[in-house]
Amino acid sequence: xxxxxxxxxxxxxxxxxxxxxxxxxxxxxxxxxxxxxxxxxxxxxxxxxxxxxxxxxxxxxxxxxxxxxxxxxxxxxxxxxxxxxxxxxxxxxxxxxxxxxxxxxxxxxxxxxxxxxxxxxxxxxxxxxxxxxxxxxxxxxxxxxxxxxxxxxxxxxxxxxxxxxxxxxxxxxxxxxxxxxxxxxxxxxxxxxxxxxxxxxxxxxxxxxxxxxxxxxxxxxxxxxxxxxxxxxxxxxxxxxxxxxxxxxxxxxxxxxxxxxxxxxxxxxxxxxxxxxxxxxxxxxxxxxxxxxxxxxxxxxxxxxxxxxxxxxxxxxxxxxxxxxxxxxxxxxxxxxxxxxxxxxxxxxxxxxxxxxxxxxxxxxxxxxxxxxxxx
Length: 376
Known about the structure:
Largest sheet: 5 strands, antiparallel
Oligomer: single chain
Distance between the termini: 22 Å
Number of helices: 10
Number of strands: 7
């Protein structure tokens, strides 16, 4: 465990911001007043566009407390329009360098978006309160593991990818570290956890191989949405097909880890009940439980992808199906769901055989996560 922590601290030291010179500083504000006017169509189309003349009171940054008057043009496209009302909280972008500017009128501001982070704080608070109340001690460990996983993605994987590290190896590294931290914290430091970790890692390796083969033979571009296009505009040197493969592995990690822990825990409990069972018998028992698990877990993973791509599903009614199922984005989503499901299926027998062997041949002394207690 100490070695793992040392590696994590070393990787955190690699953190750097590749976009530092291009980021526009953002400040918070609240809309004080709104007036509507009609203007000529700026895009050259027919008819008029609506413009909101708004006054925004700045709530953060150097000019906190100051008011600025801004134009907010509404084009009629709900994807890009930001319809504001009095009292709405907004995020404003300002000029990058305001260090030597004393008057707010000498700074250019524009509305970036509505401030939405408040509801996120509420949802996160509800989640963690329920996690701690229902999960108790396990909930605390789950909280730590979630924090560690998020930190790994933002402070290890992201800097590695932005500095030219292979997305596939970077994702595998983060997946392995996340699995180690999560499983050992939640399930304890024992053979059961080790079996689940090995089953999860081997299954993710299979997912990595399948994702790369799929990307190659299906000639997927790695561009799955506007985010990819924006990222390409800023960093065209990145390996977008590798990033796609990394995304598939990260998306499958949670479900595969869940299956691995479930199978390993089941076999361990069966052996505790009847330690006369052979490795073969334990493997069969694990497979029987696994068959019940894979139906719901695979279904869950596919529903996650379908739910996130519901507009794309609706679009299928307005396009030729032959063309639809050959679209880059559609093939990417279906491939991601299938590869994740294949990893789940593979995790069942892999974890079952590893767990059955470890449980049957383990040493008499097994150390739990609590190092002050030794289970004999």
